[in-house]
Design the sequence.
C-alpha cells in the first residue's frame, strides 16, 4: 500500500511512467510481425537436392514447406525472374524482359554482361516490394539481389550492398544478421548468391563435377542457418530459399547456326540464346522472319504479335520484333565459332529443367510439408501478406499459396493468435495496474481530499 504521505505529484508521475512502459509493451505486441529473409541461389534447379547429399536443404524442408515444382516466368533468365519474385509480375508487365535489352523508345541498352544495369528507367515499370515495405514505415536490407542497388523511383533499400560479385557469401550473411538485429531492425532481407548458376553454365548440370558445387551451396545454406541460430533468429524469422531458374545440358550436336539461313547484316541480336531477341534492320522484318521461320525443326520463330499468350511476353516495347526460341537443350548462335556454354537456361518456362528450388521455413510456415506446384508470381502476394503490406497490382494469387502457411489466414492465424495473446496480456496489465493505483492511492487521496484538495487537483490537471 502506498503510504498516504507520498506527495501526489510523485505518485502521479510514477503512474504515468509505469503506464507508459505497459503501453510500449502493448504496442510491441501489436506490431509484433513476421520478418522475412528471401534467399536466392542463382540457377539452383529444383532437383539438385536429389543429386547429392544436401543435409541442410533437407533440414530446412523437414522444418518447413517444400514446393516441388515452381513455374517461373518466361524468359527463364536471371534478371526477369528475380524481378518477378519481388513484384509478382510477368516480364512483359515489370519491364525487365531480358538480361540484355534495348529500349527503342529511350534508344538505350541494358546489359548484364556489361554490368550496365543501373538505368532506373528500365526498372520503373514496376515497384519492387522493398519500396512498398519502406513506404509502410518498415526497413529493408539487401545483399546483392538484382536491382537492389538501383535507385528505383528514387528509392533504395534502407540498407544495401553495392553489387560486387567477389564479396564472399559470409560477408553478405554478416550484413543481413547485422540489419536484422540492429536497434532499428529490418523486417525484410534479401540475399543473393551467384552459384550454382555460373558453374552450371560452365560444366553442364549433368556433369558429375556439379556434385561438389551443389554440396558447396548446401554448406552455404548450413552456414546461413548456423549464423541465424547464433543470432537467435532461426525459428523466429521466416526464411524462403529459392532461385530464379534451373539449367539444361547442352551439346555440340544441338547447335543452330543463324548464318546458315540469313545474312548477319540484316539484323542485330539484342539478347542471346536460347530465346534470341532479334531486331531486324529498317525494312527487313519480313525478310529476316521468312528466312528463319522454318529454318530448323528445333527453333521456333515468332513475330512479336505471334508469341504465345501463355508466356505473357508480348506487350512491352523492349520485346523485339522477332523472337527465336530453341527447343530444350539446343543453342542458337551465329556460327559454331561463337563460344557456347555447356549448360544454359532461358527456355520455355513449362520445361521442368527450368524450374527452381523452393523451401520456406519459419514460424509462419507449416512444418515438414510439401506442396506439388506453385507459380513464381505467387511469392509476391505471399511476401506482402507476411510483411503486412498491401500488394500492388500483380499477376500472382495469394489464395494459391496460402496453404503453405501454418494457419490458414481468415481464421486466427498463428501470428494473429500471438498478437491477440500479447494484446490481451498487455491490456490486462494496464487494467490491473490502474485498478491497483486507483484503489491504493487515488481513493486514499480522495479520502483526505478535505485536507489536501489543492495539492491533489493540480497535478492531475497538469498531467492530463
Ligand atoms: C541511338 O543512340 C546511338 C548512340 O548510343 C546513336 O548513335 C543513334 O543515332 C541513336 N538513334 C536514334 C534513333 O536516336
Ligand atoms: C569488391 O569486393 C572485394 C572483396 O570484398 C574488394 O576487394 C573490392 O575492392 C570490391 N570492389 C569494389 C569495386 O568495390
Ligand atoms: C528437335 O526436333 C525434332 C524434329 O522435330 C524433334 O523430334 C525433337 O523432339 C526436337 N528436340 C527437342 C529437344 O524438342
Ligand atoms: C564465324 O563467324 C566469325 C565472325 O564472328 C568468322 O570470323 C568465322 O570465320 C566464322 N566461321 C565460320 C566457320 O564460318
Ligand atoms: C517428416 O515427414 C516424413 C513423412 O512425410 C517423416 O518420415 C519424417 O519423420 C518427418 N520428419 C520430421 C522431422 O517430422
Ligand atoms: C499458375 O497460373 C496459371 C495462370 O493463372 C493457373 O492456370 C495455374 O493454375 C497456376 N498454377 C498453380 C500451381 O497455381
Ligand atoms: C498482370 O498484372 C498487371 C498489373 O495488374 C496487369 O496490368 C496485367 O494485365 C496482368 N497480366 C495478365 C496476363 O493478367
Ligand atoms: Zn540466374
Sequence:
Amino acid at each position: 500500500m502506498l503510504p498516504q504521505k507520498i506527495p501526489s505529484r510523485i505518485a502521479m508521475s510514477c503512474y504515468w511512467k509505469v503506464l507508459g512502459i505497459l503501453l510500449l509493451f502493448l504496442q510491441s505486441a501489436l506490431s509484433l510481425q513476421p520478418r522475412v529473409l528471401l534467399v536466392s541461389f542463382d540457377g539452383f534447379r529444383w532437383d539438385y537436392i536429389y543429386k547429392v547429399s544436401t543435409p541442410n536443404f533437407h533440414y530446412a524442408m523437414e522444418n518447413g514447406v517444400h514446393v516441388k515444382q515452381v513455374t517461373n516466368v518466361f524468359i527463364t533468365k536471371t534478371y526477369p525472374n528475380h524481378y518477378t519474385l519481388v513484384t509478382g509480375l510477368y516480364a512483359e508487365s515489370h519491364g525487365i524482359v531480358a538480361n540484355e535489352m534495348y529500349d527503342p523508345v529511350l534508344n538505350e541498352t541494358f546489359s548484364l554482361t556489361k554490368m550496365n544495369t543501373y538505368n532506373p528507367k528500365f526498372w520503373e515499370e514496376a515497384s519492387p516490394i522493398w519500396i512498398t515495405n519502406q513506404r509502410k514505415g518498415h526497413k529493408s536490407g539487401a545483399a546483392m539481389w538484382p536491382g537492389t542497388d538501383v535507385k528505383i523511383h528514387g528509392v533504395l533499400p534502407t540498407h544495401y550492398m553495392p553489387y560486387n560479385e567477389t564479396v564472399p557469401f559470409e560477408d553478405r550473411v554478416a550484413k543481413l544478421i547485422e540489419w536484422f538485429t540492429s536497434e532499428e531492425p529490418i523486417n525484410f532481407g534479401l540475399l543473393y548468391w551467384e552459384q550454382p548458376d555460373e558453374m552450371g553454365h560452365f560444366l553442364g548440370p549433368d556433369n558429375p563435377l556439379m556434385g561438389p558445387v551443389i554440396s558447396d551451396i548446401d554448406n552455404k545454406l548450413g552456414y546461413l542457418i548456423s549464423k541465424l541460430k547464433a543470432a537467435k533468429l532461426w525459428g523466429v524469422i521466416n526464411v524462403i530459399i529459392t532461385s530464379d531458374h534451373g539449367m539444361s545440358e547442352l551439346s555440340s550436336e544441338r547447335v543452330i547456326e543463324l548464318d546458315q539461313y540469313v545474312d548477319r547484316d540484316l539484323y542485330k541480336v539484342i539478347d542471346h540464346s536460347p530465346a534470341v531477341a532479334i531486331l531486324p534492320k529498317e525494312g527487313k522484318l519480313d525478310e529476316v522472319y521468312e528466312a528463319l521461320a522454318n529454318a530448323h525443326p528445333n527453333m521456333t520463330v515468332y513475330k512479336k504479335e505471334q508469341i504465345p499468350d501463355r508466356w505473357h511476353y508480348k506487350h512491352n516495347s523492349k520485346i523485339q520484333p522477332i523472337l527465336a526460341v530453341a527447343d530444350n537443350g539446343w543453342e542458337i548462335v551465329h556460327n559454331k565459332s561463337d563460344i557456347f556454354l555447356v549448360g544454359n537456361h532461358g527456355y520455355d518456362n513449362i520445361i521442368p529443367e527450368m524450374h527452381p528450388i523452393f523451401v520456406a521455413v519459419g514460424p509462419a510456415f507449416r512444418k515438414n510439408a510439401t506442396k506439388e506446384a506453385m507459380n513464381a508470381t505467387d511469392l509476391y502476394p505471399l511476401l506482402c501478406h507476411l510483411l503486412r503490406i498491401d500488394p500492388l497490382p500483380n499477376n500472382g494469387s495469394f489464395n494459391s499459396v496460402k496453404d503453405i502457411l501454418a494457419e490458414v489466414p481468415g481464421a486466427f492465424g498463428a501470428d494473429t493468435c500471438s498478437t491477440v495473446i500479447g494484446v490481451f496480456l498487455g491490456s490486462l496489465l494496464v487494467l490491473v495496474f490502474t485498478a491497483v493505483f486507483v484503489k491504493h492511492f487515488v481513493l486514499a487521496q480522495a479520502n483526505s481530499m478535505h485536507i489536501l484538495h489543492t495539492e491533489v487537483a493540480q497535478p492531475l490537471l497538469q498531467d492530463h
About this structure: The domain at 255-334 is CATH 3.30.1360.180 (Gyrase A; domain 2). The two ends are 24 Å apart (CA to CA). Residues 1-7, 27-31, 411-415, 448-464 have pLDDT under 50 and may be disordered.
